[in-house]
Amino acid sequence: MFKKLEELEVYQLAEKLADEVWDICVSWESFAKFTVGKQLVNAADSIPANLSEGHGRFSMKENLQFCYYARGSFGETRNWLRRAYKRKLLTKKQVDILKKIMDELGPKLNAYITSIKRQSKQ
Known about the structure:
Layout: H1 9-25, H2 30-55, H3 60-86, H4 92-120
């Protein structure tokens, strides 16, 4: 059965991550906000955006391609989170919240990609 995008757990988690990242970065000092923050927000926002674009496509092959883009953005988000942590822009509490979301989102994103692969072969 074809679910609405907003019903998919992977999409809900991607949006949650993007919103958490925004809430954190928006309060940073201007230099951090316009260097690391801008890159981090763009990467995190790109995950649900690509899932959304793929979900709206007419073929599973196109959907799969956008899911790969989302997974790439997931990796980029992880990179910018590491940079932010190393540069002491994140508190321990923020790291814990973001890590929990990332640890859940990564496997769900891979599972979603696997399910689309299966569907595209039918």
